[in-house]
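Q: Could you predict the 3D structure of Centromere/kinetochore protein zw10-like?
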Amino acid sequence: MSLVADVVASIRSRGGKEKTGKLGIDGQLEELVKRAEEGRVGVFQALGSRYSKLTTALHDTTLLHDRVNAALRDLTNLHDSIEQEVESGVKSSVGEVGGLVRRWKEVVVGLEAANTLLKIHTLFDEAHNAQLIHSFLTTAENLAKVELLLQETSEKEVEGNLEIISSLKAELLIRRTQLGYTIGEVWGETVTWDEERLNDGSQSVSLLIHVVNGKSSQNNCEELQHILGAFYLLGELQRRITGLGKNLMRHFFGPIISSNAAVKVVERSDGYSIKVTQPKGPEEKASAILVFGRLQQTFLMLHKSLLCIKVHTDSADGNEDDEGLSLMQLLGKEIGEEFTELLIKECLAEAVPCSRAQLDEYEEVKRATEDFQQFLSGNGFYNAQDKSIIEYAANVDVVFSNKACAHILEQAREMMKRPIHVTVCVTPLEPDGGLIIQDETGQKLVKSTLRLEQLLAAKTFNLPKCQIR
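A: Sure. Here are the predicted C-alpha coordinates for Centromere/kinetochore protein zw10-like:
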Protein backbone atom coordinates (compact mmCIF):
# COMPACT_ATOMS: atom_id res chain seq x y z
CA MET A 1 0.00 0.00 0.00
CA SER A 2 1.26 3.53 -0.83
CA LEU A 3 2.46 5.92 1.82
CA VAL A 4 -0.57 8.18 1.44
CA ALA A 5 -2.93 5.22 1.75
CA ASP A 6 -1.11 4.09 4.94
CA VAL A 7 -1.56 7.53 6.50
CA VAL A 8 -5.24 7.68 5.59
CA ALA A 9 -5.88 4.17 6.91
CA SER A 10 -4.09 4.99 10.15
CA ILE A 11 -6.16 8.14 10.64
CA ARG A 12 -9.42 6.37 9.95
CA SER A 13 -8.64 3.34 12.18
CA ARG A 14 -7.65 5.47 15.14
CA GLY A 15 -10.50 7.97 14.60
CA GLY A 16 -8.27 10.70 15.86
CA LYS A 17 -8.66 9.42 19.47
CA GLU A 18 -5.55 7.32 19.99
CA LYS A 19 -2.38 9.27 20.42
CA THR A 20 0.46 8.23 18.25
CA GLY A 21 4.18 8.41 18.66
CA LYS A 22 6.86 9.48 16.28
CA LEU A 23 6.10 6.47 14.11
CA GLY A 24 2.39 7.39 13.89
CA ILE A 25 0.84 10.35 12.08
CA ASP A 26 3.74 12.64 12.89
CA GLY A 27 6.25 10.29 11.39
CA GLN A 28 4.18 9.57 8.34
CA LEU A 29 3.48 13.28 7.68
CA GLU A 30 7.13 14.04 8.09
CA GLU A 31 7.82 11.39 5.48
CA LEU A 32 5.28 13.05 3.16
CA VAL A 33 6.86 16.46 3.70
CA LYS A 34 10.26 14.96 3.05
CA ARG A 35 9.11 13.42 -0.22
CA ALA A 36 7.44 16.67 -1.30
CA GLU A 37 10.60 18.62 -0.50
CA GLU A 38 12.70 16.14 -2.45
CA GLY A 39 10.35 16.44 -5.42
CA ARG A 40 10.44 20.24 -5.33
CA VAL A 41 14.21 20.34 -5.13
CA GLY A 42 14.43 17.77 -7.91
CA VAL A 43 12.33 19.96 -10.20
CA PHE A 44 14.39 23.07 -9.48
CA GLN A 45 17.61 21.17 -10.11
CA ALA A 46 16.34 19.60 -13.33
CA LEU A 47 15.00 22.85 -14.77
CA GLY A 48 17.94 24.82 -13.44
CA SER A 49 20.41 22.61 -15.28
CA ARG A 50 18.26 22.95 -18.40
CA TYR A 51 17.81 26.72 -18.58
CA SER A 52 20.85 28.12 -16.76
CA LYS A 53 23.17 27.51 -19.73
CA LEU A 54 21.19 28.98 -22.58
CA THR A 55 24.21 29.90 -24.65
CA THR A 56 25.34 26.29 -25.08
CA ALA A 57 22.04 24.44 -25.47
CA LEU A 58 18.43 25.40 -25.86
CA HIS A 59 17.05 21.85 -25.52
CA ASP A 60 18.02 19.15 -23.06
CA THR A 61 18.31 15.39 -23.62
CA THR A 62 15.32 13.06 -23.84
CA LEU A 63 16.28 11.53 -20.48
CA LEU A 64 16.02 14.90 -18.75
CA HIS A 65 12.70 15.57 -20.41
CA ASP A 66 11.30 12.24 -19.17
CA ARG A 67 12.64 12.97 -15.70
CA VAL A 68 10.87 16.34 -15.55
CA ASN A 69 7.60 14.89 -16.82
CA ALA A 70 7.80 12.08 -14.28
CA ALA A 71 8.43 14.61 -11.53
CA LEU A 72 5.38 16.56 -12.65
CA ARG A 73 3.15 13.48 -12.45
CA ASP A 74 4.46 12.49 -9.02
CA LEU A 75 4.08 16.00 -7.62
CA THR A 76 0.57 16.36 -8.98
CA ASN A 77 -0.54 13.05 -7.50
CA LEU A 78 1.13 13.81 -4.17
CA HIS A 79 -0.33 17.29 -3.95
CA ASP A 80 -3.86 16.09 -4.74
CA SER A 81 -3.64 13.26 -2.22
CA ILE A 82 -2.45 15.57 0.54
CA GLU A 83 -5.25 18.08 -0.09
CA GLN A 84 -8.06 15.54 -0.41
CA GLU A 85 -7.33 12.96 2.28
CA VAL A 86 -4.51 13.84 4.61
CA GLU A 87 -5.43 17.47 5.27
CA SER A 88 -8.73 16.57 6.92
CA GLY A 89 -6.95 14.25 9.34
CA VAL A 90 -4.27 16.78 10.06
CA LYS A 91 -6.78 19.52 10.84
CA SER A 92 -8.56 17.23 13.33
CA SER A 93 -5.30 16.72 15.18
CA VAL A 94 -4.00 20.26 14.89
CA GLY A 95 -3.11 20.38 18.53
CA GLU A 96 -0.66 17.52 18.12
CA VAL A 97 0.84 18.26 14.75
CA GLY A 98 0.35 22.03 14.40
CA GLY A 99 4.01 22.67 13.72
CA LEU A 100 4.12 19.92 11.13
CA VAL A 101 1.07 21.39 9.39
CA ARG A 102 2.77 24.78 9.11
CA ARG A 103 5.81 23.12 7.65
CA TRP A 104 3.62 21.19 5.25
CA LYS A 105 1.96 24.41 4.05
CA GLU A 106 5.36 25.92 3.37
CA VAL A 107 6.22 22.90 1.26
CA VAL A 108 2.90 23.26 -0.60
CA VAL A 109 3.91 26.80 -1.56
CA GLY A 110 7.15 25.39 -2.87
CA LEU A 111 5.24 22.73 -4.78
CA GLU A 112 3.11 25.43 -6.42
CA ALA A 113 6.27 27.22 -7.50
CA ALA A 114 7.64 23.98 -8.93
CA ASN A 115 4.36 23.32 -10.72
CA THR A 116 4.46 26.81 -12.29
CA LEU A 117 7.99 26.20 -13.53
CA LEU A 118 6.93 22.88 -15.01
CA LYS A 119 4.04 24.63 -16.83
CA ILE A 120 6.53 27.09 -18.30
CA HIS A 121 8.76 24.22 -19.35
CA THR A 122 5.83 22.45 -21.04
CA LEU A 123 4.82 25.63 -22.89
CA PHE A 124 8.40 26.06 -24.13
CA ASP A 125 8.41 22.51 -25.49
CA GLU A 126 5.03 22.94 -27.18
CA ALA A 127 6.15 26.23 -28.70
CA HIS A 128 9.27 24.60 -30.08
CA ASN A 129 7.34 21.70 -31.62
CA ALA A 130 4.78 24.07 -33.15
CA GLN A 131 7.51 26.19 -34.71
CA LEU A 132 9.04 23.12 -36.34
CA ILE A 133 5.82 22.56 -38.31
CA HIS A 134 5.43 26.31 -39.07
CA SER A 135 2.47 26.71 -36.73
CA PHE A 136 3.65 30.21 -35.90
CA LEU A 137 0.49 31.46 -34.24
CA THR A 138 0.47 28.56 -31.75
CA THR A 139 4.13 29.21 -31.03
CA ALA A 140 3.51 32.89 -30.37
CA GLU A 141 0.48 32.12 -28.19
CA ASN A 142 2.50 29.72 -26.00
CA LEU A 143 5.31 32.25 -25.62
CA ALA A 144 2.72 34.88 -24.64
CA LYS A 145 1.43 32.50 -21.94
CA VAL A 146 4.99 31.98 -20.70
CA GLU A 147 5.46 35.74 -20.48
CA LEU A 148 2.28 36.07 -18.43
CA LEU A 149 3.33 33.25 -16.05
CA LEU A 150 6.76 34.83 -15.57
CA GLN A 151 5.16 38.18 -14.76
CA GLU A 152 2.89 36.55 -12.16
CA THR A 153 5.78 34.53 -10.75
CA SER A 154 8.03 37.57 -10.35
CA GLU A 155 5.40 39.21 -8.12
CA LYS A 156 5.28 36.26 -5.67
CA GLU A 157 7.52 36.03 -2.64
CA VAL A 158 8.90 32.51 -3.12
CA GLU A 159 9.09 32.24 -6.90
CA GLY A 160 10.30 35.80 -7.36
CA ASN A 161 13.50 35.04 -5.44
CA LEU A 162 14.41 31.97 -7.49
CA GLU A 163 17.53 32.29 -9.64
CA ILE A 164 15.96 30.18 -12.39
CA ILE A 165 13.41 32.94 -13.13
CA SER A 166 16.07 35.15 -14.71
CA SER A 167 17.22 32.21 -16.83
CA LEU A 168 13.67 31.55 -17.99
CA LYS A 169 13.25 35.22 -18.91
CA ALA A 170 16.42 35.03 -20.98
CA GLU A 171 15.13 31.85 -22.61
CA LEU A 172 11.85 33.61 -23.46
CA LEU A 173 13.71 36.52 -25.06
CA ILE A 174 15.76 34.14 -27.21
CA ARG A 175 12.67 32.19 -28.27
CA ARG A 176 10.77 35.38 -29.20
CA THR A 177 13.72 36.74 -31.16
CA GLN A 178 14.17 33.46 -33.00
CA LEU A 179 10.46 33.26 -33.83
CA GLY A 180 10.40 36.85 -35.07
CA TYR A 181 13.36 36.19 -37.36
CA THR A 182 11.80 33.00 -38.75
CA ILE A 183 8.42 34.62 -39.42
CA GLY A 184 10.15 37.63 -40.97
CA GLU A 185 11.91 35.36 -43.45
CA VAL A 186 8.64 33.61 -44.39
CA TRP A 187 6.90 36.99 -44.81
CA GLY A 188 9.76 38.27 -46.97
CA GLU A 189 9.48 35.22 -49.22
CA THR A 190 5.70 35.62 -49.48
CA VAL A 191 5.46 39.37 -50.17
CA THR A 192 8.30 40.54 -52.46
CA TRP A 193 9.01 43.77 -54.36
CA ASP A 194 10.82 43.81 -57.70
CA GLU A 195 12.07 46.98 -59.44
CA GLU A 196 13.00 47.05 -63.12
CA ARG A 197 14.19 49.76 -65.51
CA LEU A 198 13.00 49.17 -69.06
CA ASN A 199 14.85 49.91 -72.31
CA ASP A 200 12.67 52.91 -73.16
CA GLY A 201 13.68 54.60 -69.92
CA SER A 202 10.47 53.86 -68.03
CA GLN A 203 10.55 52.19 -64.64
CA SER A 204 8.30 49.44 -63.33
CA VAL A 205 7.75 48.05 -59.84
CA SER A 206 6.07 44.71 -59.24
CA LEU A 207 4.52 43.35 -56.05
CA LEU A 208 4.52 39.54 -55.98
CA ILE A 209 2.34 37.79 -53.42
CA HIS A 210 3.35 34.13 -53.48
CA VAL A 211 1.30 31.19 -52.31
CA VAL A 212 2.88 29.72 -49.16
CA ASN A 213 4.15 26.15 -49.68
CA GLY A 214 1.97 25.63 -52.75
CA LYS A 215 -1.26 25.82 -50.76
CA SER A 216 -4.70 26.66 -52.10
CA SER A 217 -6.01 30.22 -52.00
CA GLN A 218 -8.08 29.59 -48.86
CA ASN A 219 -5.30 27.74 -47.04
CA ASN A 220 -2.84 30.42 -48.12
CA CYS A 221 -5.01 33.08 -46.47
CA GLU A 222 -5.11 31.02 -43.28
CA GLU A 223 -1.33 30.69 -43.35
CA LEU A 224 -0.88 34.43 -43.79
CA GLN A 225 -3.46 35.01 -41.09
CA HIS A 226 -1.41 32.96 -38.64
CA ILE A 227 1.74 34.86 -39.62
CA LEU A 228 0.07 38.23 -39.06
CA GLY A 229 -1.41 37.02 -35.76
CA ALA A 230 2.06 35.91 -34.62
CA PHE A 231 3.43 39.31 -35.66
CA TYR A 232 0.80 40.94 -33.46
CA LEU A 233 1.66 38.82 -30.42
CA LEU A 234 5.36 39.61 -30.92
CA GLY A 235 4.65 43.34 -31.22
CA GLU A 236 5.86 43.37 -34.85
CA LEU A 237 2.58 43.87 -36.73
CA GLN A 238 2.54 47.67 -36.69
CA ARG A 239 6.08 47.87 -38.05
CA ARG A 240 5.19 45.51 -40.90
CA ILE A 241 2.07 47.50 -41.78
CA THR A 242 4.05 50.74 -41.74
CA GLY A 243 6.61 49.28 -44.15
CA LEU A 244 3.90 47.93 -46.46
CA GLY A 245 2.09 51.27 -46.47
CA LYS A 246 5.23 53.23 -47.35
CA ASN A 247 6.03 50.91 -50.24
CA LEU A 248 2.50 51.11 -51.61
CA MET A 249 2.46 54.91 -51.46
CA ARG A 250 5.91 55.23 -53.01
CA HIS A 251 5.72 52.60 -55.76
CA PHE A 252 1.99 52.28 -56.50
CA PHE A 253 -0.39 55.01 -55.37
CA GLY A 254 1.97 57.95 -55.84
CA PRO A 255 2.94 57.13 -59.46
CA ILE A 256 -0.67 56.24 -60.42
CA ILE A 257 -2.05 59.53 -59.10
CA SER A 258 0.79 61.90 -60.00
CA SER A 259 2.71 60.39 -62.92
CA ASN A 260 0.12 58.71 -65.19
CA ALA A 261 1.55 55.27 -64.36
CA ALA A 262 -0.05 52.20 -65.96
CA VAL A 263 -1.25 49.18 -63.96
CA LYS A 264 -1.17 45.50 -64.86
CA VAL A 265 -2.51 42.78 -62.56
CA VAL A 266 -1.99 39.07 -63.15
CA GLU A 267 -3.26 36.03 -61.22
CA ARG A 268 -0.65 33.31 -61.61
CA SER A 269 -0.36 29.69 -60.56
CA ASP A 270 2.15 30.56 -57.82
CA GLY A 271 0.39 33.67 -56.57
CA TYR A 272 -0.55 37.19 -57.63
CA SER A 273 1.33 39.98 -59.42
CA ILE A 274 0.68 43.73 -59.53
CA LYS A 275 2.91 45.76 -61.87
CA VAL A 276 2.98 49.56 -62.04
CA THR A 277 4.97 51.15 -64.87
CA GLN A 278 5.96 54.80 -64.61
CA PRO A 279 6.74 56.52 -67.96
CA LYS A 280 10.02 58.27 -68.62
CA GLY A 281 10.03 62.00 -68.12
CA PRO A 282 7.06 64.31 -67.46
CA GLU A 283 3.81 63.45 -69.20
CA GLU A 284 0.35 64.92 -69.21
CA LYS A 285 -1.54 63.78 -66.14
CA ALA A 286 -4.26 61.20 -66.56
CA SER A 287 -7.89 62.18 -66.08
CA ALA A 288 -9.45 61.70 -62.68
CA ILE A 289 -11.74 58.95 -64.01
CA LEU A 290 -8.77 57.03 -65.40
CA VAL A 291 -6.87 57.43 -62.13
CA PHE A 292 -9.84 56.11 -60.14
CA GLY A 293 -10.04 53.09 -62.44
CA ARG A 294 -6.37 52.25 -62.03
CA LEU A 295 -6.49 52.71 -58.26
CA GLN A 296 -9.57 50.51 -57.98
CA GLN A 297 -7.91 47.82 -60.09
CA THR A 298 -4.89 47.88 -57.77
CA PHE A 299 -6.97 47.81 -54.59
CA LEU A 300 -9.08 44.91 -55.87
CA MET A 301 -6.06 42.69 -56.45
CA LEU A 302 -4.45 43.72 -53.15
CA HIS A 303 -7.66 42.96 -51.29
CA LYS A 304 -8.13 39.60 -52.99
CA SER A 305 -4.58 38.39 -52.40
CA LEU A 306 -3.56 40.00 -49.11
CA LEU A 307 -5.57 42.84 -47.58
CA CYS A 308 -8.73 40.78 -46.97
CA ILE A 309 -6.95 38.76 -44.27
CA LYS A 310 -8.28 39.33 -40.78
CA VAL A 311 -5.84 39.60 -37.90
CA HIS A 312 -6.79 37.70 -34.74
CA THR A 313 -5.73 39.80 -31.77
CA ASP A 314 -8.15 38.46 -29.14
CA SER A 315 -5.70 35.74 -28.06
CA ALA A 316 -3.28 38.41 -26.92
CA ASP A 317 -5.38 40.79 -24.87
CA GLY A 318 -8.97 39.58 -25.11
CA ASN A 319 -10.05 42.81 -26.75
CA GLU A 320 -12.99 41.79 -28.88
CA ASP A 321 -13.16 45.21 -30.55
CA ASP A 322 -9.98 44.39 -32.45
CA GLU A 323 -11.05 40.88 -33.40
CA GLY A 324 -11.55 40.48 -37.10
CA LEU A 325 -9.77 43.65 -38.19
CA SER A 326 -8.68 43.16 -41.79
CA LEU A 327 -5.30 44.17 -43.09
CA MET A 328 -7.11 46.66 -45.35
CA GLN A 329 -8.55 48.40 -42.28
CA LEU A 330 -5.17 48.51 -40.57
CA LEU A 331 -3.58 49.86 -43.76
CA GLY A 332 -6.27 52.54 -44.03
CA LYS A 333 -5.49 53.71 -40.52
CA GLU A 334 -1.81 53.86 -41.44
CA ILE A 335 -1.85 55.68 -44.81
CA GLY A 336 -5.48 56.78 -45.30
CA GLU A 337 -4.85 60.44 -44.51
CA GLU A 338 -1.73 60.66 -46.67
CA PHE A 339 -3.50 58.90 -49.54
CA THR A 340 -6.46 61.30 -49.37
CA GLU A 341 -4.28 64.41 -49.36
CA LEU A 342 -2.35 63.17 -52.39
CA LEU A 343 -5.54 62.25 -54.27
CA ILE A 344 -7.10 65.66 -53.65
CA LYS A 345 -3.98 67.67 -54.46
CA GLU A 346 -2.78 65.79 -57.54
CA CYS A 347 -6.03 64.47 -59.01
CA LEU A 348 -9.27 66.15 -57.90
CA ALA A 349 -7.84 69.65 -57.80
CA GLU A 350 -6.55 69.21 -61.34
CA ALA A 351 -9.94 67.96 -62.51
CA VAL A 352 -11.85 71.09 -61.40
CA PRO A 353 -12.51 73.24 -64.52
CA CYS A 354 -11.44 76.85 -64.96
CA SER A 355 -14.51 77.99 -66.88
CA ARG A 356 -18.24 77.53 -66.41
CA ALA A 357 -18.51 75.97 -69.85
CA GLN A 358 -16.68 72.90 -68.48
CA LEU A 359 -18.79 72.47 -65.34
CA ASP A 360 -21.11 69.95 -67.01
CA GLU A 361 -18.16 67.69 -67.76
CA TYR A 362 -17.15 67.84 -64.08
CA GLU A 363 -20.39 66.10 -63.04
CA GLU A 364 -18.97 62.84 -64.35
CA VAL A 365 -15.91 63.31 -62.14
CA LYS A 366 -18.18 63.83 -59.11
CA ARG A 367 -20.02 60.57 -59.80
CA ALA A 368 -16.74 58.69 -60.25
CA THR A 369 -15.49 60.16 -56.95
CA GLU A 370 -18.59 58.96 -55.09
CA ASP A 371 -18.24 55.46 -56.55
CA PHE A 372 -14.57 55.30 -55.57
CA GLN A 373 -15.38 56.50 -52.05
CA GLN A 374 -18.02 53.78 -51.67
CA PHE A 375 -15.58 51.17 -52.96
CA LEU A 376 -12.89 52.09 -50.42
CA SER A 377 -15.40 52.33 -47.57
CA GLY A 378 -16.93 48.98 -48.48
CA ASN A 379 -13.54 47.28 -48.32
CA GLY A 380 -12.55 48.95 -45.03
CA PHE A 381 -9.86 51.35 -46.23
CA TYR A 382 -12.06 54.32 -45.24
CA ASN A 383 -14.40 54.26 -42.29
CA ALA A 384 -18.05 55.19 -42.74
CA GLN A 385 -17.55 58.71 -41.37
CA ASP A 386 -14.69 59.65 -43.70
CA LYS A 387 -16.13 61.70 -46.59
CA SER A 388 -13.10 63.82 -47.45
CA ILE A 389 -12.87 63.23 -51.20
CA ILE A 390 -16.65 63.40 -51.71
CA GLU A 391 -16.89 66.69 -49.82
CA TYR A 392 -14.07 68.15 -51.85
CA ALA A 393 -15.59 67.07 -55.16
CA ALA A 394 -19.11 68.21 -54.17
CA ASN A 395 -17.97 71.65 -53.05
CA VAL A 396 -17.44 72.60 -56.68
CA ASP A 397 -18.60 76.25 -56.42
CA VAL A 398 -15.91 77.27 -53.98
CA VAL A 399 -13.28 75.11 -55.66
CA PHE A 400 -14.22 76.41 -59.10
CA SER A 401 -14.13 80.04 -57.97
CA ASN A 402 -10.76 79.59 -56.36
CA LYS A 403 -9.37 77.84 -59.41
CA ALA A 404 -10.82 80.38 -61.85
CA CYS A 405 -9.26 83.21 -59.86
CA ALA A 406 -6.01 81.30 -59.66
CA HIS A 407 -6.10 80.79 -63.43
CA ILE A 408 -6.66 84.50 -64.11
CA LEU A 409 -3.91 85.45 -61.70
CA GLU A 410 -1.61 82.98 -63.40
CA GLN A 411 -2.32 84.52 -66.79
CA ALA A 412 -1.70 87.99 -65.39
CA ARG A 413 1.50 86.82 -63.83
CA GLU A 414 2.67 85.43 -67.16
CA MET A 415 1.89 88.70 -68.89
CA MET A 416 3.81 90.63 -66.26
CA LYS A 417 6.77 88.37 -66.75
CA ARG A 418 7.01 89.18 -70.47
CA PRO A 419 9.87 91.50 -71.49
CA ILE A 420 8.58 95.12 -71.65
CA HIS A 421 11.56 96.51 -73.58
CA VAL A 422 10.61 94.77 -76.86
CA THR A 423 8.70 97.48 -78.84
CA VAL A 424 7.94 98.50 -82.43
CA CYS A 425 7.88 101.96 -83.99
CA VAL A 426 4.50 103.31 -85.20
CA THR A 427 4.23 106.33 -87.54
CA PRO A 428 1.19 108.00 -89.20
CA LEU A 429 0.34 106.55 -92.59
CA GLU A 430 -0.63 109.97 -93.93
CA PRO A 431 1.04 112.65 -91.86
CA ASP A 432 -0.78 115.47 -93.66
CA GLY A 433 -3.84 113.59 -94.88
CA GLY A 434 -7.38 114.40 -94.00
CA LEU A 435 -9.91 112.31 -92.21
CA ILE A 436 -11.41 109.58 -94.38
CA ILE A 437 -15.07 108.72 -93.81
CA GLN A 438 -16.27 105.23 -94.72
CA ASP A 439 -19.61 103.53 -94.71
CA GLU A 440 -20.45 100.18 -93.11
CA THR A 441 -19.06 98.30 -96.12
CA GLY A 442 -15.79 100.19 -96.03
CA GLN A 443 -16.51 102.40 -99.05
CA LYS A 444 -15.35 106.00 -98.92
CA LEU A 445 -18.16 108.49 -98.61
CA VAL A 446 -17.90 111.62 -100.70
CA LYS A 447 -20.34 113.47 -98.57
CA SER A 448 -20.96 112.21 -95.10
CA THR A 449 -24.36 112.52 -93.53
CA LEU A 450 -22.53 112.66 -90.25
CA ARG A 451 -21.01 115.90 -89.16
CA LEU A 452 -17.85 114.00 -88.20
CA GLU A 453 -15.48 116.24 -90.11
CA GLN A 454 -16.86 119.30 -88.39
CA LEU A 455 -16.81 117.70 -84.92
CA LEU A 456 -13.33 116.17 -85.14
CA ALA A 457 -10.08 117.49 -86.38
CA ALA A 458 -8.68 115.99 -89.55
CA LYS A 459 -5.83 114.26 -87.71
CA THR A 460 -7.79 113.04 -84.69
CA PHE A 461 -7.21 109.35 -85.47
CA ASN A 462 -3.63 109.74 -86.59
CA LEU A 463 -1.24 108.42 -83.94
CA PRO A 464 1.94 110.31 -83.42
CA LYS A 465 5.19 108.53 -83.95
CA CYS A 466 5.72 106.24 -80.92
CA GLN A 467 7.05 102.94 -79.58
CA ILE A 468 4.51 100.30 -78.52
CA ARG A 469 4.79 96.71 -77.40
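Q: Anything worth pointing out?
A: Residues 94-132 form the longest helix (39 residues).
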